[in-house]
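Data deposition worksheet. Section B asks for the primary sequence of the deposited chain exactly as it was used as input, without tags or linkers unless they were present during the calculation. Section C holds the resulting structure in token form. Section D is free text for depositor observations; keep each observation to a single sentence. Incomplete worksheets are returned to the depositor.
Section A, Depositor: J.P.
Section B:
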Amino acid sequence: MIDALAPDAGRLQGQIDELSAFHDSGRPGWSREVFSEPYRASREWVRAAMAEAGLNPVIDDAGNIVGRLPGRRRSGPALVTGSHTDTVPSGGRFDGVVGVLAGIEVARRLRETGTELEHDLLVVDFLGEEANEFGISCMGSRAVAGVLRPEHLDRTDGDGLALGTAMERFGLDPSAALGRPWRASDVHGYVELHIEQGPLLERSGHDIGVVTAIAGIDRLLVTFAGRSGHAGTTPMADRHDALVSAAAAVLTVERVGCGAPVHGVATSGHIQSGPGSMGVITDQARLWAEIRSVDGSWLHGARRQIVDEIASEARARGVDIDVEWLTDQDPVPTTEAVRDRITEAADDLGLPWKAVPSGAGHDAAHLATLGPMGMIFVPSVAGRSHCPEELTAPADIARGAHLLAATLLRMDSP
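Section C:
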């Protein structure tokens, strides 16, 4: 049975290539950001691919594309798999996409082999998983988990556009996205296939990563308020330079991230400053940054340390700060029973596996509130991700898809 569900590797790679055609051609790599026109067009392609594979696709109130393959029971909790198809700016072709298209391929192989599951199988393309200017990632999975909040819809991008308005312009009803989460009784279990986005599997020579936990993420926006003045006549000791304080904060974020005892990273992603003249001392700046770890105690301590050190340094320069925490997500362990099903299936298929943490955020972290959750990683070439050079070999994708099918079969058993 397991061998019969091996994917058509050429077909799966061909679909990855087809989906990658939907991108912003004016930018390097593959940009398909949430609410963009390439993203809108790609979603029609995903719906058609689901239907062609025998799934019944609908767009739910949260904007997720949900394809259903009925099981024998025709009711009760469903097995769920999937990921996302939006990208970061100038991103790659595989992040998220592999999980969605492998799920579709599994459904197709179930139909082609006449294999009927006991439970319904849902394959989901979750809306807007990637970090964005609104500061709200995993929009669709947050909604189904019931943790998308009204205040999230009021968040604005750099142009002052509110998230709720952006959703409306995209054809969605933001109030409905808030009001109809899934119930725990809807989900028998969730398993997500994903590229590793790091170097551990390639370096160790393992085909498969069995994810132990998904990192917690805290994202912050720091606003610096200084005082403008003439760049040529204001003595250095008399300056209250907002941009210098922001630059020092970047180094603080890096230093704190380097101090994690086990697993922790910290990144400054973006700075804005004004008035933006070479001849004028900067009087305002904004810094977006994040910290991540699977160690919740370190994460919470690092959060306090970053703010305390940034505030102290800015105060010494006579610069005021305001800190806004955009999102926070605690580390989420995967479910032991699902990890066991993945490792058993990997052993059956003769796939060497390694237990690994995930430093990336995933929709799976929110699905964990609804039922048992696990993740499967396949190697990333040179560990590159979120860049045009992102690459996972077709053979590795096929192995991951085969393992996904085998895991779902084990999870489907009474």
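Section D:
The chain has 13 helices and 13 strands.
The radius of gyration is 23 Å.
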